[in-house]
Amino acid sequence: MSHETEIINYILYSEAEHNVLPLSSLCHNGCVFCSHKNIGPADYLYRFYDYKRQLSEVIEHIDFLDPSKKVFIGESATKIFEGEPFLFRGIIEVLRAVRRQVKKAAISITTSGGFIPAAFFEIAEEIAPLEINFSLNSYNESVRDKIVLDGKTKEAFENFEKLCAAGSDVKLSVSLMALNASMTPADILLEDIGKIRRMTNLSVVKIYLPRFSGAQFHNFFADYGEFERYCRTVKSSLEGINDNALTTPVILEPAPPDFDGGDILIHSVLPGSKAALKNVAPKDKIKAVNGEAPLSKTHAYRMITASKKAPAVTVEPAGGASSREIIFSGYNREKDGACGIVFTADIPGETIEKLIGINKKLENLDKKGIVATTRLSADYMRNILEKFNITSLSAAAFENFRFGGNIDCVGLLTLEDIRVNMRSDANKKFRAGDINAIVLSSLMFDHLGRDLNGENIADFNRAAGFAVFIS
After folding, report:
1. Phi, psi of 176 (to 5 degrees)
2. Which end of the chain is more exposed for a tag (fewer CB within 10 A), N or C?
3. In this predicted model, what pLDDT tens digit does every residue of 355-409 receive, in sequence order?
4. Is the peptide bond preceding residue 249 cis, with omega within 30 degrees of 0?
5. pTM of the model as a whole
6. Is 24 left (phi over 0), alpha (psi -120 to 50) or beta?
7. Where is 396: in which H helix or E strand?
Protein backbone atom coordinates (compact mmCIF):
# COMPACT_ATOMS: atom_id res chain seq x y z
CA MET A 1 0.00 0.00 0.00
CA SER A 2 1.49 3.36 -1.04
CA HIS A 3 1.96 6.16 1.48
CA GLU A 4 -0.87 8.28 0.04
CA THR A 5 -3.22 5.31 -0.37
CA GLU A 6 -2.61 4.40 3.26
CA ILE A 7 -3.52 7.90 4.41
CA ILE A 8 -6.68 7.98 2.29
CA ASN A 9 -7.64 4.63 3.83
CA TYR A 10 -7.44 6.17 7.32
CA ILE A 11 -9.39 9.23 6.20
CA LEU A 12 -12.19 7.11 4.73
CA TYR A 13 -12.29 4.98 7.88
CA SER A 14 -12.57 8.10 10.05
CA GLU A 15 -15.46 9.37 7.97
CA ALA A 16 -17.41 6.17 7.36
CA GLU A 17 -16.93 4.47 10.75
CA HIS A 18 -16.58 7.34 13.23
CA ASN A 19 -18.32 10.26 11.49
CA VAL A 20 -15.12 12.24 11.96
CA LEU A 21 -14.36 14.64 9.11
CA PRO A 22 -10.55 15.07 9.08
CA LEU A 23 -9.33 18.41 7.79
CA SER A 24 -5.63 17.74 8.42
CA SER A 25 -5.67 21.44 9.16
CA LEU A 26 -2.69 23.61 9.93
CA CYS A 27 -1.67 24.18 13.52
CA HIS A 28 -0.17 27.27 15.09
CA ASN A 29 2.32 24.91 16.84
CA GLY A 30 2.22 27.19 19.85
CA CYS A 31 1.17 24.85 22.67
CA VAL A 32 4.19 24.05 24.85
CA PHE A 33 2.54 20.77 25.86
CA CYS A 34 1.56 19.60 22.35
CA SER A 35 1.95 15.87 21.72
CA HIS A 36 2.89 16.60 18.09
CA LYS A 37 6.30 17.66 19.41
CA ASN A 38 6.98 13.98 20.12
CA ILE A 39 6.92 13.18 16.39
CA GLY A 40 10.06 13.70 14.29
CA PRO A 41 10.43 13.63 10.47
CA ALA A 42 11.95 10.13 10.60
CA ASP A 43 9.06 8.77 12.66
CA TYR A 44 6.45 6.45 11.14
CA LEU A 45 3.69 8.73 12.43
CA TYR A 46 5.12 11.85 10.76
CA ARG A 47 3.60 10.90 7.40
CA PHE A 48 0.17 11.40 8.96
CA TYR A 49 1.15 14.68 10.60
CA ASP A 50 2.42 16.16 7.37
CA TYR A 51 -0.60 15.38 5.16
CA LYS A 52 -2.90 18.27 4.17
CA ARG A 53 -6.28 18.06 2.45
CA GLN A 54 -7.75 20.32 -0.22
CA LEU A 55 -11.11 22.01 0.30
CA SER A 56 -12.64 20.27 -2.72
CA GLU A 57 -11.66 16.85 -1.34
CA VAL A 58 -13.15 17.60 2.08
CA ILE A 59 -16.43 18.80 0.54
CA GLU A 60 -16.61 15.69 -1.64
CA HIS A 61 -16.03 13.39 1.34
CA ILE A 62 -18.94 14.84 3.32
CA ASP A 63 -21.08 12.33 1.41
CA PHE A 64 -19.37 9.53 3.36
CA LEU A 65 -20.75 10.80 6.68
CA ASP A 66 -23.81 9.25 8.31
CA PRO A 67 -26.40 12.06 8.23
CA SER A 68 -28.25 10.60 11.23
CA LYS A 69 -25.27 10.91 13.61
CA LYS A 70 -23.19 13.65 15.18
CA VAL A 71 -20.27 14.85 13.04
CA PHE A 72 -16.87 15.51 14.62
CA ILE A 73 -14.42 18.13 13.34
CA GLY A 74 -11.03 18.80 14.94
CA GLU A 75 -10.82 15.35 16.57
CA SER A 76 -8.60 12.44 15.57
CA ALA A 77 -10.22 9.00 15.23
CA THR A 78 -7.15 7.45 13.56
CA LYS A 79 -3.48 8.28 13.05
CA ILE A 80 -4.50 11.35 11.01
CA PHE A 81 -3.34 14.38 13.02
CA GLU A 82 -5.77 17.24 13.48
CA GLY A 83 -4.64 20.78 14.11
CA GLU A 84 -6.79 23.86 14.63
CA PRO A 85 -9.92 23.50 12.43
CA PHE A 86 -10.45 27.26 12.14
CA LEU A 87 -7.09 27.56 10.39
CA PHE A 88 -8.42 25.42 7.54
CA ARG A 89 -9.11 27.62 4.52
CA GLY A 90 -12.75 27.23 3.65
CA ILE A 91 -13.89 26.09 7.10
CA ILE A 92 -17.10 28.14 6.84
CA GLU A 93 -17.93 26.51 3.50
CA VAL A 94 -17.22 23.10 5.04
CA LEU A 95 -19.54 23.74 7.99
CA ARG A 96 -22.36 24.87 5.71
CA ALA A 97 -21.88 21.81 3.49
CA VAL A 98 -21.94 19.49 6.51
CA ARG A 99 -25.19 21.02 7.68
CA ARG A 100 -26.75 20.53 4.24
CA GLN A 101 -25.88 16.83 4.45
CA VAL A 102 -26.56 16.34 8.17
CA LYS A 103 -29.94 17.92 8.78
CA LYS A 104 -30.50 17.50 12.53
CA ALA A 105 -27.55 15.91 14.33
CA ALA A 106 -25.02 18.11 16.11
CA ILE A 107 -21.75 19.26 14.61
CA SER A 108 -19.01 18.89 17.22
CA ILE A 109 -15.93 21.12 16.85
CA THR A 110 -12.76 21.01 18.95
CA THR A 111 -10.87 24.31 18.93
CA SER A 112 -8.30 26.32 20.87
CA GLY A 113 -10.50 29.33 20.22
CA GLY A 114 -8.09 32.04 19.14
CA PHE A 115 -8.70 31.69 15.40
CA ILE A 116 -12.51 31.54 15.27
CA PRO A 117 -13.52 34.11 12.62
CA ALA A 118 -16.39 36.56 12.94
CA ALA A 119 -18.07 34.72 10.05
CA PHE A 120 -18.54 31.67 12.28
CA PHE A 121 -20.66 33.61 14.75
CA GLU A 122 -22.67 35.02 11.85
CA ILE A 123 -23.65 31.52 10.70
CA ALA A 124 -23.77 29.77 14.10
CA GLU A 125 -27.56 29.82 14.28
CA GLU A 126 -27.80 28.61 10.67
CA ILE A 127 -25.58 25.55 11.28
CA ALA A 128 -26.84 24.72 14.79
CA PRO A 129 -27.02 22.53 16.82
CA LEU A 130 -23.34 22.82 17.66
CA GLU A 131 -21.12 21.27 20.28
CA ILE A 132 -17.91 23.18 20.95
CA ASN A 133 -15.06 21.53 22.84
CA PHE A 134 -13.10 24.63 23.77
CA SER A 135 -9.44 24.01 24.64
CA LEU A 136 -9.12 27.18 26.70
CA ASN A 137 -6.01 25.77 28.43
CA SER A 138 -6.04 28.61 30.97
CA TYR A 139 -8.44 31.43 31.80
CA ASN A 140 -5.58 33.49 33.21
CA GLU A 141 -4.08 35.81 30.61
CA SER A 142 -0.45 35.61 31.77
CA VAL A 143 -0.62 31.82 32.16
CA ARG A 144 -2.15 31.24 28.73
CA ASP A 145 0.43 33.52 27.14
CA LYS A 146 3.14 31.23 28.56
CA ILE A 147 1.66 27.86 27.62
CA VAL A 148 -0.03 28.67 24.27
CA LEU A 149 2.33 30.71 22.11
CA ASP A 150 -0.17 31.72 19.44
CA GLY A 151 -0.45 35.39 20.43
CA LYS A 152 -4.23 34.92 20.49
CA THR A 153 -5.09 34.95 24.20
CA LYS A 154 -7.31 38.04 23.92
CA GLU A 155 -9.20 36.58 20.96
CA ALA A 156 -9.55 33.17 22.64
CA PHE A 157 -11.11 34.72 25.76
CA GLU A 158 -13.44 36.92 23.70
CA ASN A 159 -14.58 33.97 21.58
CA PHE A 160 -15.10 31.81 24.67
CA GLU A 161 -17.31 34.48 26.22
CA LYS A 162 -19.28 34.88 22.97
CA LEU A 163 -19.95 31.14 22.88
CA CYS A 164 -21.04 31.18 26.52
CA ALA A 165 -23.63 33.78 25.53
CA ALA A 166 -24.74 31.95 22.38
CA GLY A 167 -27.75 30.23 23.94
CA SER A 168 -29.14 26.75 23.56
CA ASP A 169 -27.99 26.29 19.95
CA VAL A 170 -24.44 25.78 21.25
CA LYS A 171 -23.48 23.13 23.83
CA LEU A 172 -20.13 24.14 25.26
CA SER A 173 -17.47 22.23 27.20
CA VAL A 174 -14.12 23.68 28.21
CA SER A 175 -10.74 22.21 29.11
CA LEU A 176 -7.82 23.55 31.15
CA MET A 177 -4.24 22.26 31.31
CA ALA A 178 -2.50 21.33 34.56
CA LEU A 179 1.19 21.30 33.55
CA ASN A 180 3.37 21.81 36.63
CA ALA A 181 3.56 23.84 39.83
CA SER A 182 5.32 26.83 38.26
CA MET A 183 3.29 27.19 35.06
CA THR A 184 -0.18 26.21 36.27
CA PRO A 185 -0.27 26.19 40.09
CA ALA A 186 -3.32 24.61 41.72
CA ASP A 187 -4.59 27.92 43.10
CA ILE A 188 -4.68 29.41 39.58
CA LEU A 189 -6.61 26.37 38.34
CA LEU A 190 -9.16 26.88 41.12
CA GLU A 191 -9.48 30.57 40.23
CA ASP A 192 -10.04 29.62 36.59
CA ILE A 193 -12.73 27.10 37.54
CA GLY A 194 -14.48 29.72 39.67
CA LYS A 195 -14.49 32.26 36.82
CA ILE A 196 -15.65 29.68 34.28
CA ARG A 197 -18.47 28.47 36.51
CA ARG A 198 -19.86 32.00 36.60
CA MET A 199 -20.38 31.78 32.83
CA THR A 200 -23.54 30.34 31.28
CA ASN A 201 -24.16 27.61 28.70
CA LEU A 202 -21.40 25.28 29.95
CA SER A 203 -21.81 21.51 30.25
CA VAL A 204 -18.50 20.43 31.80
CA VAL A 205 -15.00 21.64 32.73
CA LYS A 206 -12.17 19.17 32.10
CA ILE A 207 -8.78 19.47 33.78
CA TYR A 208 -6.02 17.61 31.95
CA LEU A 209 -3.12 16.35 34.05
CA PRO A 210 0.30 16.43 32.36
CA ARG A 211 1.48 13.53 30.21
CA PHE A 212 4.82 14.04 28.47
CA SER A 213 7.08 11.80 26.43
CA GLY A 214 10.71 11.34 27.37
CA ALA A 215 11.59 14.05 24.85
CA GLN A 216 9.61 16.63 26.83
CA PHE A 217 9.24 15.31 30.38
CA HIS A 218 12.32 17.00 31.84
CA ASN A 219 11.24 20.35 30.42
CA PHE A 220 8.47 20.25 33.02
CA PHE A 221 9.61 18.00 35.89
CA ALA A 222 12.93 17.13 37.50
CA ASP A 223 11.82 13.55 38.09
CA TYR A 224 8.77 11.28 38.40
CA GLY A 225 8.44 12.11 42.10
CA GLU A 226 7.94 15.81 41.35
CA PHE A 227 5.30 14.90 38.77
CA GLU A 228 3.43 12.70 41.27
CA ARG A 229 3.55 15.40 43.96
CA TYR A 230 2.07 17.94 41.57
CA CYS A 231 -0.72 15.56 40.56
CA ARG A 232 -1.53 14.89 44.22
CA THR A 233 -1.69 18.64 44.89
CA VAL A 234 -4.08 19.21 41.99
CA LYS A 235 -6.28 16.27 43.01
CA SER A 236 -6.45 17.34 46.65
CA SER A 237 -7.28 20.93 45.68
CA LEU A 238 -10.27 19.62 43.70
CA GLU A 239 -11.67 17.55 46.61
CA GLY A 240 -15.37 18.31 46.93
CA ILE A 241 -15.38 20.47 43.79
CA ASN A 242 -18.58 18.78 42.58
CA ASP A 243 -20.47 18.66 45.89
CA ASN A 244 -22.76 21.48 44.74
CA ALA A 245 -25.00 19.86 42.12
CA LEU A 246 -26.04 23.30 40.80
CA THR A 247 -22.58 24.14 39.43
CA THR A 248 -20.83 23.00 36.25
CA PRO A 249 -19.17 19.59 36.82
CA VAL A 250 -15.38 19.37 36.86
CA ILE A 251 -13.64 16.22 35.59
CA LEU A 252 -9.96 15.41 36.08
CA GLU A 253 -8.25 13.45 33.25
CA PRO A 254 -6.38 11.21 32.82
CA ALA A 255 -6.84 9.64 36.20
CA PRO A 256 -6.82 6.07 37.45
CA PRO A 257 -10.32 4.67 36.87
CA ASP A 258 -12.38 4.75 40.06
CA PHE A 259 -13.32 1.23 41.12
CA ASP A 260 -15.58 2.57 43.90
CA GLY A 261 -15.94 -0.86 45.45
CA GLY A 262 -17.39 -2.13 42.19
CA ASP A 263 -20.38 0.22 42.34
CA ILE A 264 -21.48 2.29 39.34
CA LEU A 265 -21.28 5.73 40.96
CA ILE A 266 -22.44 8.95 39.33
CA HIS A 267 -19.61 11.50 39.23
CA SER A 268 -21.78 14.59 38.76
CA VAL A 269 -24.97 15.85 37.14
CA LEU A 270 -25.34 18.65 34.59
CA PRO A 271 -27.42 21.52 36.01
CA GLY A 272 -30.84 21.81 34.36
CA SER A 273 -30.58 18.38 32.71
CA LYS A 274 -33.20 15.63 32.75
CA ALA A 275 -31.28 13.90 35.55
CA ALA A 276 -31.08 17.09 37.61
CA LEU A 277 -34.84 17.62 37.24
CA LYS A 278 -35.34 14.08 38.59
CA ASN A 279 -33.12 14.88 41.60
CA VAL A 280 -30.36 12.49 40.57
CA ALA A 281 -27.23 13.48 42.50
CA PRO A 282 -23.46 12.87 42.59
CA LYS A 283 -22.47 9.57 44.28
CA ASP A 284 -25.86 7.99 43.59
CA LYS A 285 -25.48 4.40 42.37
CA ILE A 286 -26.75 3.14 39.01
CA LYS A 287 -28.20 -0.32 39.63
CA ALA A 288 -29.74 -1.00 36.21
CA VAL A 289 -30.38 0.54 32.79
CA ASN A 290 -33.45 -0.72 30.96
CA GLY A 291 -33.59 -3.64 33.39
CA GLU A 292 -29.97 -4.77 32.91
CA ALA A 293 -27.15 -4.28 35.43
CA PRO A 294 -24.22 -2.40 33.83
CA LEU A 295 -20.75 -3.92 34.12
CA SER A 296 -18.95 -0.59 34.47
CA LYS A 297 -19.52 3.17 34.39
CA THR A 298 -18.63 3.32 30.69
CA HIS A 299 -21.05 0.46 30.07
CA ALA A 300 -23.81 2.33 31.93
CA TYR A 301 -23.17 5.47 29.87
CA ARG A 302 -23.32 3.57 26.59
CA MET A 303 -26.47 1.71 27.64
CA ILE A 304 -28.24 4.99 28.34
CA THR A 305 -27.07 6.70 25.15
CA ALA A 306 -27.93 3.65 23.01
CA SER A 307 -31.55 3.66 24.18
CA LYS A 308 -34.02 3.83 21.30
CA LYS A 309 -36.80 4.93 23.64
CA ALA A 310 -37.00 6.68 26.99
CA PRO A 311 -34.22 5.15 29.14
CA ALA A 312 -35.30 3.49 32.39
CA VAL A 313 -32.52 3.97 34.94
CA THR A 314 -32.65 2.41 38.41
CA VAL A 315 -30.88 4.68 40.89
CA GLU A 316 -29.97 4.07 44.53
CA PRO A 317 -29.54 7.42 46.33
CA ALA A 318 -26.19 8.10 47.98
CA GLY A 319 -27.94 8.55 51.32
CA GLY A 320 -29.01 4.92 51.34
CA ALA A 321 -32.73 5.28 50.58
CA SER A 322 -34.54 2.67 48.51
CA SER A 323 -33.72 2.38 44.81
CA ARG A 324 -36.11 3.99 42.34
CA GLU A 325 -36.60 3.54 38.62
CA ILE A 326 -36.53 6.78 36.66
CA ILE A 327 -38.05 6.98 33.18
CA PHE A 328 -36.46 9.80 31.20
CA SER A 329 -39.45 10.57 28.99
CA GLY A 330 -39.12 12.73 25.89
CA TYR A 331 -35.60 11.38 25.39
CA ASN A 332 -33.65 12.59 22.35
CA ARG A 333 -30.37 10.71 21.95
CA GLU A 334 -28.56 13.47 20.08
CA LYS A 335 -29.71 16.23 22.40
CA ASP A 336 -29.89 14.49 25.77
CA GLY A 337 -26.96 12.04 25.67
CA ALA A 338 -26.82 10.41 29.10
CA CYS A 339 -29.61 12.70 30.37
CA GLY A 340 -27.06 14.86 32.19
CA ILE A 341 -25.49 12.02 34.17
CA VAL A 342 -21.69 12.35 34.16
CA PHE A 343 -19.46 9.32 34.74
CA THR A 344 -15.69 9.06 35.04
CA ALA A 345 -14.19 6.90 32.31
CA ASP A 346 -13.38 3.28 33.03
CA ILE A 347 -13.38 -0.08 31.22
CA PRO A 348 -16.03 -0.70 28.52
CA GLY A 349 -18.55 -3.47 29.15
CA GLU A 350 -17.52 -5.34 25.98
CA THR A 351 -13.92 -5.46 27.22
CA ILE A 352 -15.05 -7.10 30.47
CA GLU A 353 -17.06 -9.61 28.45
CA LYS A 354 -13.98 -10.40 26.33
CA LEU A 355 -11.86 -10.90 29.46
CA ILE A 356 -14.47 -13.27 30.87
CA GLY A 357 -14.42 -15.22 27.59
CA ILE A 358 -10.60 -15.36 27.51
CA ASN A 359 -10.60 -16.55 31.11
CA LYS A 360 -12.89 -19.46 30.21
CA LYS A 361 -10.62 -20.48 27.33
CA LEU A 362 -7.55 -20.44 29.58
CA GLU A 363 -9.37 -22.40 32.30
CA ASN A 364 -10.26 -25.09 29.77
CA LEU A 365 -6.61 -25.27 28.71
CA ASP A 366 -5.37 -25.13 32.32
CA LYS A 367 -3.23 -22.11 31.44
CA LYS A 368 -2.54 -18.69 32.95
CA GLY A 369 -2.21 -15.30 31.31
CA ILE A 370 -1.47 -11.65 32.01
CA VAL A 371 -3.33 -8.50 31.00
CA ALA A 372 -0.89 -5.85 29.78
CA THR A 373 -1.83 -2.53 31.34
CA THR A 374 0.03 0.49 32.78
CA ARG A 375 0.80 2.04 36.15
CA LEU A 376 -2.23 4.26 35.73
CA SER A 377 -4.72 1.39 35.54
CA ALA A 378 -3.02 -1.68 37.04
CA ASP A 379 -4.77 -1.55 40.44
CA TYR A 380 -8.12 -0.91 38.79
CA MET A 381 -7.62 -3.87 36.44
CA ARG A 382 -6.75 -6.12 39.39
CA ASN A 383 -10.03 -5.10 41.03
CA ILE A 384 -11.97 -5.84 37.84
CA LEU A 385 -10.42 -9.30 37.51
CA GLU A 386 -11.34 -10.03 41.13
CA LYS A 387 -14.89 -8.65 40.85
CA PHE A 388 -15.72 -10.82 37.84
CA ASN A 389 -13.87 -13.89 39.17
CA ILE A 390 -11.39 -13.86 36.30
CA THR A 391 -8.87 -16.13 38.00
CA SER A 392 -6.74 -17.25 35.05
CA LEU A 393 -5.56 -13.71 34.34
CA SER A 394 -3.47 -11.27 36.36
CA ALA A 395 -2.73 -7.60 35.65
CA ALA A 396 0.81 -6.47 34.80
CA ALA A 397 1.89 -2.82 34.64
CA PHE A 398 3.93 -2.38 31.44
CA GLU A 399 6.30 0.53 30.95
CA ASN A 400 6.08 2.67 27.82
CA PHE A 401 9.57 2.72 26.27
CA ARG A 402 8.40 4.05 22.89
CA PHE A 403 7.46 7.47 24.24
CA GLY A 404 9.00 7.32 27.73
CA GLY A 405 8.45 10.13 30.21
CA ASN A 406 5.24 9.70 32.15
CA ILE A 407 3.20 8.32 29.25
CA ASP A 408 1.19 5.57 30.93
CA CYS A 409 -1.86 5.14 28.72
CA VAL A 410 -2.36 1.58 27.47
CA GLY A 411 -3.39 2.88 24.05
CA LEU A 412 0.12 4.32 23.57
CA LEU A 413 1.95 1.04 24.19
CA THR A 414 3.55 -0.51 21.13
CA LEU A 415 4.34 -4.13 20.31
CA GLU A 416 8.03 -3.38 20.84
CA ASP A 417 7.10 -2.13 24.33
CA ILE A 418 5.43 -5.49 24.91
CA ARG A 419 8.58 -7.37 23.86
CA VAL A 420 10.86 -5.28 26.07
CA ASN A 421 8.57 -5.65 29.07
CA MET A 422 8.32 -9.40 28.52
CA ARG A 423 12.12 -9.64 28.70
CA SER A 424 12.26 -7.70 31.97
CA ASP A 425 12.79 -9.22 35.42
CA ALA A 426 9.17 -8.39 36.29
CA ASN A 427 8.01 -11.10 33.88
CA LYS A 428 10.25 -14.02 34.88
CA LYS A 429 7.19 -16.25 35.27
CA PHE A 430 6.28 -15.68 31.64
CA ARG A 431 9.74 -16.63 30.42
CA ALA A 432 9.73 -19.69 32.68
CA GLY A 433 6.53 -20.91 31.05
CA ASP A 434 4.35 -20.51 34.15
CA ILE A 435 2.30 -17.97 32.20
CA ASN A 436 1.27 -18.94 28.68
CA ALA A 437 -0.79 -16.05 27.30
CA ILE A 438 -0.98 -12.28 27.12
CA VAL A 439 -3.99 -10.01 26.66
CA LEU A 440 -3.37 -6.76 24.77
CA SER A 441 -5.78 -3.85 24.63
CA SER A 442 -7.50 -3.17 21.32
CA LEU A 443 -6.64 0.51 21.97
CA MET A 444 -3.08 -0.27 20.89
CA PHE A 445 -4.16 -0.94 17.32
CA ASP A 446 -5.92 0.83 14.49
CA HIS A 447 -8.50 -0.78 12.21
CA LEU A 448 -5.69 -2.32 10.16
CA GLY A 449 -4.17 -3.97 13.23
CA ARG A 450 -1.17 -1.61 13.31
CA ASP A 451 0.38 -0.04 16.38
CA LEU A 452 1.96 3.43 16.63
CA ASN A 453 5.16 2.14 15.02
CA GLY A 454 3.23 0.71 12.08
CA GLU A 455 3.83 -2.89 13.20
CA ASN A 456 0.99 -5.32 12.56
CA ILE A 457 -0.41 -7.53 15.31
CA ALA A 458 -0.59 -10.46 12.86
CA ASP A 459 3.21 -10.37 12.40
CA PHE A 460 3.68 -10.19 16.17
CA ASN A 461 1.40 -13.19 16.71
CA ARG A 462 3.28 -15.35 14.21
CA ALA A 463 6.57 -14.83 16.03
CA ALA A 464 5.26 -14.68 19.60
CA GLY A 465 5.50 -18.31 20.69
CA PHE A 466 2.63 -17.85 23.14
CA ALA A 467 -1.09 -17.15 22.95
CA VAL A 468 -2.07 -13.54 22.24
CA PHE A 469 -5.58 -12.23 22.89
CA ILE A 470 -7.04 -8.80 22.12
CA SER A 471 -9.55 -7.32 24.56
Report:
1. -125, 150
2. N
3. 999 999 999 999 999 999 998 889 999 999 999 999 999 999 998 888 777 777 8
4. no
5. 0.88
6. left
7. strand 393-397
